[in-house]
Specification:
With 189 residues, this protein is α+β, with helices and mostly antiparallel strands. 22% of the residues lie in helices and 24% in strands. It contains two helices and eleven strands. The protein is elongated, with a radius of gyration of 26 Å.
Amino acid sequence: MRTQRLLAVLLLAPLGFFATEARGDCAAPPSYIPAQDAGTVFLRAEYAGCTLTTPMLRQDVDSGTIVALAPYCVDAGDYGGDYEDDCVPAGTYRYGLETPLACMGCGGTAPFWQIVSVLPTLDAGCTRASGNATPTAYTAAPPWPADGGNSVCPNGTGGGCSTSGSVLSFDGLMLVLSLSLFGLRRRKS
């Protein structure tokens, strides 16, 4: 019995000293998921959804020009739907919400924007979806940093559900003590 306890201590004690972080039941950090179809860009803002009150912005990377997409959502489902940007000319764009995504998830970061490169597939007769108005000029500064930084979360931390090594050390110690007491109790009976 004594050998079993000693073996348990020797096997379990290192867990508390060498483990640095544990994560359980964590959600992935929010992000933007783009898709394209012949000059139309669809953008899903994970965990935020497409809303009629939070504008999606499109910034031309070359010129810096910013427009706000019309409040138009497609394929609304459990995730809230996608923003639709019709008749987008060829180029490279930053797409991001006027109100940045929230920091959440485990150790991840939420991006301010998503780069989308639109190929020159737009034909001259492009028509917008019914009810999807033309984007309007956006004159305020974009919510993302001018230096091109793309992390909403400070220092790349998304917060969430991490557990530090000191907590794991304490948990390991409590496990060893519990097993020892269980062994003593068992010996008395």
